[in-house]
Amino acid sequence: MKYSKFIFSILFVCLFTISNAQYDVKPPKGYSNDIGNMVSMLDGLKARVERIVKNLDQDATDFLLDENANTPGAMIYHLAATEKYYQVYTFEGRQFNKDEEAKWGTALSLGDKARKEFVGKPISYYLDIYDEVRAKTKELLKEKDDDWFAKKNGGMTNHWAWFHVMEHQANHMGQLAMISKRIK
């Protein structure tokens, strides 16, 4: 009896440790080291954002904490728009053109216009946009190396620009986590 409890305890500790292991930051295959580490962290954050919102129903997707807040759906669109902006900025050295501004501007700025425009669509609509933008980011980053990552681009390096995208996602991940607790 003592032996079986001992085995059970060891098995429990092993399973608990494995299931609660820390994630590693490792460059995915095909990326330079620094860019790959950034892709790893960006994807880790994106997965955590998605876990928070993926099961939201329509009321929750359109939920406003108060009259100045943004909906979870609009915030996901905002994350995609911000990432899209930094694609254009870092890979093409420019800001949004007229067509891109028309497509992404409201999501980038949020506010009253977004509160009116970004309603009535399921959370999957916004997550699909986020997925599409991320796939393009990864495709473009795969073509670059760490020398490009370290290059100045205006007042920042490309590395800093993508770090900002990551920290921006982390900021909104916290907002989404807080809002999701208020919805339920």
Mean pLDDT: 88
Low-confidence stretches: 11-21
The strand line-up of the biggest sheet is: 1-2
Count the helices. How many? 9
Q: What is Rg?
A: 20 Å
Task: Give a structural overview.
With 184 residues, the protein is mainly α. The protein is 72% helix and 2% strand. It contains 9 helices and 2 strands. The protein has a two-stranded antiparallel sheet with strand order 1-2. A hairpin with a 2-residue loop joins strand 1 and strand 2.
Short summary:
With 184 residues, this protein is mainly α. It has nine helices and two strands.
Which features does this protein show?
184 residues, mainly alpha, two-stranded antiparallel ribbon
What layout of secondary structure does this protein have?
Blueprint: H1 2-19, H2 33-53, H3 58-61, H4 72-92, H5 98-109, H6 112-117, H7 123-142, H8 146-150, E1 152-153, E2 156-157, H9 158-183
Antiparallel strand pairs: 1-2
